[in-house]
Amino acid sequence: MRLGVDARRRPLAWAGITAAAALLAAAGCGGGSGGPAVGPPPVTVADADAGEALFRRNCSGCHTFGHGDHLGPDLSVRNPSANWVRNFIADPASWIGTGYGQRLRDAWGYTMPDYGLSAAEIDDLIAFFERQDGRGPLAPSAPVALDAGAFEQARQTYFDRCAGCHGLVRSGATGPDIGQVRSTWIGTDGLAALMRHGTPRGMPNFGTSGTLGESQIAQLAAYLQQPPPEPPALPMSAIQASWRLTVPVGARPTAPQHARDWRNFFGVVERDASKVSIFDGASRELVARLDVGFAVHILRSSASGRYFQAIGRDGLVSLIDLWAAVPGVVASVKGCHDARSVEGSRMAGHEDRFLVEGCYWPPQYVVYDGQTLEPLARVDLPLDSIDGATLPEVRVASIFGLRDQPLWALALKESGWLALVDYTQPGFPIVQRIAGERFLHDGGWDAAGRHLLIAANASRRMVAFDMQRRELAASFETGDTPHPGRGANWLDPQYGWVNVTPHLGEPKVSIYGADPVGRPDVAWKVVRELTLPAAGSLFVKTHPNSPWVLFDMTMSTTHARQVCAYAKASGKIDRCFDVARAGKAVHFEFDRDGKQVWVSDWASDGAVVVLDAVTLQEVARIGGLVSPTGKFNVHNTAEEVY
Ligand code: DHE
Fold first, then answer.
1. Is 347 a catalytic residue?
2. Backbone angles phi and psi of 63, in degrees to 5
3. Atom of ligand 1 at shortest distance to CA of 588?
4. How far is CA 50 from CA 47, 62, 76, 188, in A?
5. Rounded to 5 degrees, what angle do the CA atoms 108, 114, 115 make?
6. I want to staple 174 with a disulfide (CB 3.0 to 4.6 A). Which of 50, 165, 330, 404 is the partner?
7. What is the mean pLDDT of each run of 10 residues along the chain (642 residues)?
8. Where are the beta strands (DSSP E) in 49-157?
9. pLDDT value of position 7
10. Which numbered atom of ligand 1 lies nearest the CA of 300?
């Protein structure tokens, strides 16, 4: 039985005291292998059962006991000094730079989170370890039984929360493989602990953040240990049936029906409300709040800027006309069950003419009329990877509309291909594929608009595609899970035009040369590495008129409220400061002239924080927004200013 902390803390008998003395001796009274000065172990009666429960609940996401290393070491093999282990658990960060503590940091790449356990709880854990030493490997708890209803609930939760990173068939991408075999190895407790607490490498803390309840976590842990169900197809007939043309082209205005500067509008994604709010960038007044697809992901601007194109995670594309007296959705269509990106035709003479939606599921892309969203073609994706393997799942990640050729470039995540789709050819076929790296994710253009710079986050690399020559220009390592968003271009005083990526898996920023014509000596080479206060960065952004390059650390468990500003002139991080009050700071967007920058405070009752783009002082806070995430200024999005 678990005793109250105070009730349990009573003096040890003599045998216990000699055991504690032996531990102290083994630890050299200083903690075993160097480290901060520590006192003698507390004298307590520890509860191994309570320690086991704590281990299963908190620690088993990263550690096993006797089944091998996972995200952290197998704890059946640990520092022999219980006193060292005790002090390490109490304050993991303070052991960085010391012998054993630093070796752990070097081996595992991050510092163990501090769970804020009491001294009594830590004693319980140690008691459990010592008891388990004599018992052998710890078997995981059995998964809960799933009847048909619970299985369906778990399937839906997986789709809503997990499929984006791990894939619908769970073979992994931005997140690791969590198919049946690996999930069964991790076990019920480990899976639940990972969902509950997240990881320092970017897995969200769904449990402690309140996103998922304990019963949902238990269902998911059971679901993951079963084979994934066959996901459904979405044929052209169903896509056509979903098409809604609310305002035909003839009924739309031929000139803006309001006096506002619509090219400086901001579209703000309110993710969990499945809405987009449109603000006047100058006055910051709300112009419209519109229903779009489920858990809307991003907006893109049509080449002319007149239309916002919103993509929901349910694959619903919404076309928003900014010239209407009150901007509204003029057409919608659903070409995927699951999607993240959409892009219009950008070449001169083809502006706003076609639109492509890339699916996460099914493995297909769909081309629409750019003005009406009438479905024109549905094309299956090739399922072979650049290594020649046949994959169960290939998803369209980022999409880029070229300006000088009638092409879209589709980054095919799992397979590592960049597929070029020609929208002047009948059937909108893939006319060429360029091998990159697995798994392609997000990215943007270089300053010259010639190279596409895309993160292959599972390969720790950035990939540069030369779109003039239509070939791979370079692939170079940057770090653990690069995640640049659109990236950022600026003229470095020493290295010429550069671009940059932060990383999800480590607190590193890699700045690399990105001008193979002007500075071939440093092109596609990392020229500066910076350290952020924490890993978990999702986005970077700048504007030609801004002296700063801004980074968030959204997925960090310790610094999610902060953003950091890098000074282009000095080549240094100048400051990191709190922006979010209610939730996590995420994503940046400048206004058209680069005078202000908008940052989201991502929370259910969230806000957009407007900073002066020079002083970085807060000038306004637009509140009352439901989980604001991405923000898209019409001019900057249409002209791809970043
Ligand atoms: Fe995104 C861009 C995929 C989670 C906000 N995100 C992108 C792009 C891809 C992608 C492929 C590039 C599109 C392009 O340029 O054509 N995002 C994914 C995922 O697969 C992932 C990791 C998991 C998921 O389940 O969706 C994911 N994304 C998120 C979020 O959780 C974010 C922070 C908030 C949200 O909406 O859910 C988020 N992603 C964004 C934003 C961009 C983006 C704001 C556009 C950045 C820009 O400046 O253009």
1. no
2. -115, 150
3. 48
4. 5, 19, 18, 18
5. 120
6. 165
7. 34 32 32 46 78 97 96 94 93 87 84 91 96 97 97 94 91 89 97 93 89 97 96 96 98 98 98 97 98 97 98 97 98 97 98 98 98 98 97 96 98 98 98 97 98 95 98 98 98 98 96 98 98 96 98 94 98 98 98 98 97 98 98 98 98
8. none
9. 35
10. 49
Please state the φ and ψ torsions of residue 82, each to the nearest 5 degrees: -60, -30
Instruction: Specify the pTM.
Output: 0.87
Residue minimizing CA distance to atom 16 of ligand 1 = 398
Ligand 1 site: residues with CB under 6 angstroms? 164-165, 174, 269, 271, 297-298, 340-341, 397-399, 441-442, 485-486, 538, 586-587, 629-630
User: Catalytic: which of 441, 503, 559, 587?
Assistant: 441
Alpha helices in 109-147 (DSSP H): 119-135
Distance 341 CA to ligand 1 centre (A): 8
Query: Can you say whether the dihedral through the CA atoms of 370, 373, 374, 379 is positive or negative?
Result: positive
- 396, 358 contact by CB (below 8 A): yes
The confidence score (pLDDT) of residue 109 equals 78
Beta-strand (E) ranges in 44-104?
A: none
Of all protein residues, the one whose alpha carbon is nearest to atom 22 of ligand 1 is 165
Respond yes or no: is residue 203 known to be catalytic. Answer: yes
